[in-house]
Amino acid sequence: MAKFNDIDLSRWKEYEDIETDSLWIIERRDNSGKHDGFYHGNFVPQIPRQMIKRYTKTGEVVLDPFMGSGTTAFECEALGRNFAGIDINTDMVKYVKRSFESDHNTFSGVNFHYMLSSDSTDFAAFSEIAGYLASKGINKVSHVILHPPYYDILKFTDDSRDLSNSDSIDIFLNRFAKVLDNSLSLLENNRYVSIVIGDKYTKGQWIPLGFYCMQEAMNKGLTLKSIIVKNMAGNRAKQNKNTIWRYRALNSDYFIFKHEYILVLKKN
Ligand SMILES: C[S@@+](CC[C@H](N)C(=O)[O-])C[C@H]1O[C@@H](n2cnc3c(N)ncnc32)[C@H](O)[C@@H]1O
């Protein structure tokens, strides 16, 4: 099998930090380094860290078309990977750019963090990234991490092109599929895509957003490699409401959300 990471199998017992199970219980967000977790809707740095270590080599490029507060970008910096990112939230892109200007980690092998404030459903942003990569003598990215809004659970901006402002689930999935298409055009063959997504509950019904997004990815001809279930913990707002949710659940017919998915797919 082609090598797509830096894991040295002659020392395989030493990689205790790398997950290989499909159930991830992460007790606490790692807020070390540049991660401070202020952005509502961010993911824990441990997610991109696992994906980067498992699916990329030092010096390769990771693409995150929903980069938000830059969690993937900061992990790339710490792990010596290059980064290309897009977000429709201009303030966030400015914030992440500023964090690199003020305190640049000169980890060997990191040459660039290229970020655009743009709409990831529009191919123009990806063509700009392709142009930038070409100027560096690079053809393709080696991994794509997609952490879209969980439909309308949390509104990120007032921009109508923001996926969290989609008028229906079909429109949301259509837009997600476009971002996927655009991202795949930049991904090397035989490399991997991670999709981080949770479900939602509305009007008395569980909406399996995770499985819908997974189906969109499989419709693109990607091979499903893993469905990882990760616990959701440490959300202060939810903790305070735990008892009332439990009361409501006992009084009704549903279970309380405690997990989200990390879907791993391969581009053939
Ligand atoms: C779940 S958050 C990602 C958070 C990120 N992983 C982090 O740790 O900060 C989803 C992001 O998608 C962005 N977004 C929504 N629609 C978009 C679009 N059409 N193009 C680019 N970004 C978009 C939102 O602004 C938001 O920052």
From TrEMBL:
Superkingdom of this protein's organism: Bacteria
Coiled-coil regions listed in the entry: none
EC number: 2.1.1.-
Enzyme type, top EC level: transferase
Residue stretches making up the DNA methylase N-4/N-6 domain: 14-97, 141-268
Biological processes per GO annotation: methylation
Signal peptide bounds: none
GO molecular function terms listed in the Swiss-Prot or TrEMBL record: DNA binding; N-methyltransferase activity
Keyword Methyltransferase among record annotations: yes
Keywords: Methyltransferase, Transferase
InterPro entries according to UniProt: DNA_methylase_N4/N6 (IPR002941), RM_Methyltransferase (IPR001091), SAM-dependent_MTases_sf (IPR029063)
Gene3D superfamilies: Vaccinia Virus protein VP39
Listed Pfam families: N6_N4_Mtase (PF01555)
Protein family membership: Belongs to the N(4)/N(6)-methyltransferase family.
Protein name in UniProt: Methyltransferase
UniProt organism field: Sedimentisphaera cyanobacteriorum
Organism phylogeny: Bacteria, Pseudomonadati, Planctomycetota, Phycisphaerae, Sedimentisphaerales
Name of the encoding gene: dpnA
